[in-house]
């Protein structure tokens, strides 16, 4: 037991240092949550898969997006979709979805009309309508 005690102390020190929030990114999927969209909000948006069509547009290409009114949300946890929306990658179409999740700051800002906002989203639920 005496030999294990220093290892336990070392583990606790690393655990404490590793949990320090000062190292948390200020943007992106691993950053702090800005807003929560609860399931009870029953938000309905359009999901699409963004590919690069314009050679000058390299803004979060090859990712799934959800559009809701003037909000554009780039999905962080695409594995949550379970291949259910893979048809959109090929067709280039959109599908109506009801969704909820955690909104986070994007790292790459996009200059656009003032009414449009861009955020990252970690989905907690999504249902194709």
Briefly characterize the structure.
The chain has 129 residues and is an alpha+beta fold. The protein is built from two helices and six strands; from the N terminus they run H-E-E-E-E-H-E-E.
Question: How does this structure look, described?
Answer:
- The structure is a single chain.
- By secondary structure, the protein is of the alpha+beta class.
- The protein has a single domain (26-128), classed as OB fold (Dihydrolipoamide Acetyltransferase, E2P).
- Helices cover 16% and strands 35% of the residues.
- It is built from two helices and six strands; from the N terminus they run H-E-E-E-E-H-E-E.
- It has helices spanning 4-18, 87-91; strands at 35-37, 43-50, 63-68, 71-75, 95-105, 117-128.
- Strands 2-3-4-6-5 form a five-stranded mixed β-barrel.
- Strand 3 (63-68) and strand 4 (71-75) form a beta hairpin.
- The longest helix has 15 residues, at 4-18.
- The protein is globular and about 40 Å long.
- The N and C termini lie far apart (58 Å).
- The model is unreliable at 1-5 and 9-13 (pLDDT under 50).
């Amino acid at each position: 037991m005496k030999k294990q005690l220093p290892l336990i102390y070392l583990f606790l020190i690393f655990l404490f240092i590793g949990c320090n929030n000062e190292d948390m990114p200020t943007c992106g999927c691993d950053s702090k949550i800005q807003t929560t969209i609860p399931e009870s909000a029953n938000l309905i948006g359009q999901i699409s898969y963004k590919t690069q069509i314009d050679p000058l547009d390299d803004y979060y290409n090859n990712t799934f997006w959800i559009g809701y009114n003037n909000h554009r949300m780039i999905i962080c946890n695409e594995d949550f979709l379970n291949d259910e929306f893979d048809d959109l990658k090929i067709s280039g179409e959109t599908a109506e979805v009801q969704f909820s999740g955690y909104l986070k700051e994007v790292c790459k800002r996009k200059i656009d009309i003032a009414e449009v906002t861009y955020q990252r989203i970690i989905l907690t639920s999504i249902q194709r309508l």
